[in-house]
Design goal:
With about 500 residues, this protein is an alpha/beta fold. The protein contains 16 helices and 20 strands.
Length: about 500
């Protein structure tokens, strides 16, 4: 597609030996030097077909429509799942309403907490199984599913279990009550984590849920139904309706839904906002991003290099808060780019189930096409492309880690969300210029600041138009910390005490 940049060999000093001895050639620690270390899939049982989870049991869809879910690393079909239609959504909403009114809303917080604790423990016990299935269905490296996604999903249930019996004390001067039935639509980049991210606070607050997973990654949500049943969660408290975009639209538009929580693209978020306008129903949107990762000259550059790589190449860059715009102070730009290229040369692209793999498969052929098209536009508009030389697997959907230099704010790759392993580098001279360039985007989800000066971090963070600002790190998450954006990155918060607000009705006391 385009020529690759020159390789910069890793600088490995020879060992200090006996005087006069000839130093041996440094060992090759490149990606090709690692022996394969595949994770076994024996623990995972994938059914040929899946129905819908409504009223506490798996039931066939009334629509009779089925769709395949595919392993993006091979292109092979893993299973087929039901595509829920309006009638199926209606059944799920009715089951959720019955569970809400009959017992869940009036259940004490301490009892609800027990269910959440059970779910968290069961997720932790079955973490390896969930990690392997997440990698099979989504294409992300197993070490990310194993070490990040599944533990964090369990942590969200643990954290919100602790809130369930404390809601009346969480907001001074107000009593807290649930909203009712919540419709939740989640994306494909973090399937189980986004399910936990949304389910845990909704259930802790006393709501019941109709959850619609992404159509390319439904399997871990369907496996979660076993956990819900093993935890003896009352029937109808959580209902899972798989399907396509039309299924999600039917969920959002259903008049029996009291609140909608959506994570996904900005375009779909705007459609949802138009649908709910004037209805009085609550809405939380967590949408796209084009985050700036800002590097000052006094930053620890080796630490910065790892932070850049984790900020953009984690999950193949398919992260709404990915640090896809790198803003580097001019005085250290050449050094940072040299270190970054060397580090990129060590990244292993390949089988997501291999524990050595750093960059796995792109989620779908459609997403791969979008990434390729935007990278081509960067070349056409004059940006300097660098891609390490790596052999991509012959099957599946893969894209190499990509770096663009000489990027201007007018380039498409600097303005549009690529949602892939593509980094654009822009230079700046002063902190004021860095803020102006960072805020020069319609998005406002996240940002990163790298400097040894604490005062500069605080000053920059106050001026950044982003919901989350990381200091000397990137892509770090905690269930106790609120997450969300501004402008075209959405509104509302998820996580922490602030995230609970979106699922509660507050009433004043003694007024």
């Amino acid at each position: 597609m385009s020529e690759t940049g020159e390789h910069l060999p890793a600088s490995i000093p020879p060992s200090a030996g006996v005087a006069g001895a000839v130093a041996a050639d440094p060992p090759d620690f490149g990606p090709e030097s690692y022996a394969p270390a595949p994770e076994s899939t024996d623990l995972v049982q994938v059914a040929d077909e899946y129905g819908l989870f409504i009223g506490g049991e798996m039931v066939p869809a009334q629509s009779d429509r089925m769709a395949p879910t595919v392993n993006p690393a091979t292109g092979e079909t893993l299973a087929t799942f039901s595509v829920g239609g309006p009638t199926d959504v209606d059944r799920a909403v009715l089951a959720a309403r019955e569970a809400y009114e009959s017992h869940w809303r009036d259940m004490s917080g301490s009892v609800r907490a027990r269910y959440l604790y059970r779910i968290a423990r069961l997720l932790a016990e079955r973490s390896r199984e969930f990690a392997v299935l997440e990698t099979l269905d989504g294409g992300k490296p197993i070490k990310e599913s194993r070490d990040v996604d599944i533990p964090l999903a369990a942590a969200h249930f643990f954290h919100h279990a602790g809130w369930a019996d404390k809601l009346d004390y969480a907001f001074a001067g107000a009593s807290a009550g649930p909203l009712g039935v919540v419709g939740q639509v989640i994306p494909w980049n973090f399937p189980l984590l986004m399910a936990a991210w949304k389910l845990a606070p909704a259930l802790a607050a006393g709501n019941t849920v109709v959850l619609k997973p992404a159509e390319t990654t439904p399997l871990t949500a369907l496996l979660l139904t076993e956990v819900l049943q093993d935890a003896d969660l009352p029937p109808g408290v959580v209902n899972i309706v798989t399907g396509d975009g039309a299924t999600g639209a039917a969920t959002v538009a259903h008049p029996g839904i009291d609140k909608v929580a959506f994570t996904g693209s900005t375009a779909v978020g705007k459609e949802i906002q138009r649908t709910l306008a004037g209805t009085g129903r609550r809405l939380t949107l967590e949408l796209g991003g084009k985050a700036a990762n800002i590097i000052f000259e006094d930053a620890a550059l080796d630490q910065v290099t790892e932070g850049i790589v984790g900020g953009i190449y984690f999950n193949q860059g398919q992260v709404c808060c990915a640090g896809s715009r790198l803003l580097v102070q001019e005085s250290v730009a050449d050094v940072v780019i040299t270190k970054l290229r060397r580090r990129m040369d060590t990244l292993l692209v390949g089988d997501p189930l291999d524990k050595n793999t750093d960059i796995g498969a792109i989620n779908s052929a459609a997403q791969l096409h979008r990434i390729s098209e935007l990278v081509s536009s960067g070349v056409e508009q004059g940006a300097e492309l660098y891609q390490p030389s790596c052999a991509l697997p012959e099957r599946g959907w893969f894209f190499p880690p990509t770096l663009f230099c000489d990027v201007s704010p007018s380039h498409r790759i600097a303005r549009e969300e690529i949602f892939g392993p593509v980094l654009s580098v822009l230079a700046f001279r002063t902190a004021t210029e860095a803020v102006e360039k960072a805020n020069n985007t319609p998005y406002g989800l996240s940002a990163g600041i790298w400097t040894e000066k604490g005062s500069r971090i605080l000053q920059m963070a106050e001026r950044m138009q982003a919901g989350v600002v990381w200091a000397n790190t990137f892509n770090r998450f905690d269930p106790a910390s609120p997450f969300g954006g501004y402008r075209e990155s959405g509104f509302g918060r998820e996580g922490g005490r602030q995230g609970l607000l979106g699922y509660l009705e507050l009433q004043g006391i003694g007024r």
